[in-house]
Amino acid sequence: MDLLLASLQILWRWDVLLALLVGSIGGVIIGAIPGVGPAVAIAILLPATFSMDPIVGLTVLLGIYGSSMYGGAIPAILVNTPGTAVNALTTYEGYPMTQRGEARRALSLAYSASFFGGVFSVACLIALSPLLAKIAPMFGSREIFLAALLGIILVVIAHRGQTLIAAALACLGIFINTIGLEPIKYTKRYTFDQAWLAGGIDLIVVVLGLFALGQAFFLLVGRDKPVRLKAVSGSLFQGFRELFKHPRVAAISGSFGVVMGMIPGVGEFTAQFMAYTTAQKTSKTPEQFSNGSPEGLIASETANNAVPAAAMIPLLALGIPGEALTAMMLSVFYVHNVVPGPGLFQNQMDFVVALYIALLLLNVMVLLFLLGSTRHLVQLVRIPNRYMGVCILTLSFVGVYSLRNSIVDCAIAAVFGILGFILKRLSLPIVPIILGMVLGGIMEAKLRTSMNRVKDPLDFIDRPIAFILFCIILFVLALHAWRLRKERDAVS
Amino acid sequence: MLDRNTSETKADAGQAAFGLALLVIALVLLAFIGQETKWVERTKLFSQPTFWSALSLAGMALFGLLHFASLSRKSFQAGDQREVAIWLRSAEFAVWFMVYVFSVPLIGFLPCTLVFVVLLLWRCGYRDRRSMGLGAVFAVAVVVTFKGFLSVKIPGATLYEYLPGAVRSFFILNF
């Protein structure tokens, strides 16, 4: 009870509540505009949050992260264009429903499923907290190294059909992180005697370049396309009634979201894909899937929205981000000298619980906002692509330049913007570069520390958690090799 | 249909060019490993400054090579040159961005943003009064929100120094 009161005290401030409101409404709006997405918005806002209190800055970013997928369902359902990339499966069921004249039903169901997913994952997070608080201190240097290694491996093999290029890009990320003065012997690495490279390449500059500038270039080089909108009228409350008719689909999809969100490198795509295929396999009407099935819509939206809260688990408990958005949040923690990891659960549990409550509140706020504003929000879809590109390019400047007022940072971001544009054009993954940068740094520091205490290689896995993580790595690699072989056999 | 999250390209065009570029960059950087990193005496392999640079570049070269080798023959024919030309078109907007970056410390955040947004909208074909007007409103809103309310660190411009006393301080602080 004391813990709850202390957490509420952290949240019960006008600036935190305002941040929550701005973050959650801003996230919905950003999600509803195809082409922006939470990664672009968080990257742009990141430097602005550095001057705020940690809880205020994190609440804004959490709000955007947690609510953008709600908004992303609107264009997915109405114009067959996912607002955020992870709303792609929603188009399969939502748009056919709109074509049948059931746009209101589809939107209402998507909101209810998203709300259920969000609340379900926060409930799981709260239930798991005591266990996490016990397990997290058992993670020393070698366990964190192995967990980060597992994260890199998972993010690579999660890109099925692009594993090799994802691995190459993850290595590129690790390499970028090594540029500059290394922290132990203070020798220069790949600076080519250039003073501007001595400090290394900042993660935020790379993030802004790859996500924000890359997306701006992508939109500016592309073409505008006409949008035909269907009107939405009537109450949006009916979705909850329909959701309760499919409790099994909602619970299983929410569980997939929580489990996949907790595993570094996996995230929304795998969660929604597994939830969707499971719902289809276990449905009494599998033939309706891809033709406007309410079960498919519930599976996709519940799984998506269950991920953000769960993705905070490896970040808070181990200091290991599972994907690009939590990697950006990690930098907010570092700027404020709040070090996520085992110590956070031991020493600042009230801060952790405050974040959970903020996540819970944000789901309620978003739902209320959407129920009242959907009719107006749908108009955002009309903003032309290239117009949006101009806006993102302008906002990207604020993000990069306000970081250190450095023209060099802006030039580096522009170069990464072109790289991000090329990767988007080729449908190649961007996330391995970011996770390579973040997890590469963690792996380097932790391997150095842990190898000082290890006499022979087997000592490295002589602790229970390290041994389990090592076995998981072997299992994941073996499973991937088996899958590849099976696919090759199927082709031949 | 509007499609902003997925690429419009044929999947094969440009893959070979990108794979080759990645491989060449990795090999060139690997060639510099002796010059650009140090091997420290009496230090374990895992603690060597060169270890992670070498490991990552070797990984980049190996996986880049395997990726390049795995590309289908179609990848080497399907409009690579046209795709590379599209990549170069993004450089035009990078130049716009850098001109904006260089101008802000001289002319100021507000005037630069206004001019940048309106000119870029003009360049993109939005030449009607409504689009340009909305663009100008957006530019002012960005400046007021970020510099005025969120107080992000964007220093006052050289041009503001020529403004009279109180106006100068107001502009430096807010615009």
What does this structure look like?
The complex is a heterodimer of chains A (492) and B (175). With 492 residues, chain A is mainly α. Chain A has 21 helices and two strands. Chain A has a two-stranded antiparallel ribbon. The longest helix of chain A has 33 residues, at 103-135. The model of chain A has no long low-confidence stretch (mean pLDDT 86). Helices cover 67% and strands 0% of the residues of chain B. In chain B, 30% of the residues are buried. By secondary structure, chain B is mainly alpha-helical. Chain B contains seven helices and no strands. Classes of the chains: A mainly alpha (492), B mainly alpha (175).
What topology does this entry show?
The complex is a heterodimer of chains A (492) and B (175).
Chain A: H1 2-11, H2 14-32, H3 37-49, H4 54-79, H5 88-99, H6 103-135, H7 141-157, H8 163-178, E1 180-181, E2 188-189, H9 195-198, H10 203-221, H11 238-243, H12 247-262, H13 267-282, H14 294-318, H15 324-335, H16 342-347, H17 349-377, H18 385-404, H19 407-425, H20 431-451, H21 464-491
Antiparallel strand pairs in A: 1-2
Chain B: H1 15-31, H2 33-36, H3 49-70, H4 80-107, H5 109-123, H6 129-149, H7 165-174
Helix pairs in contact in B: 1-3, 4-5, 5-6
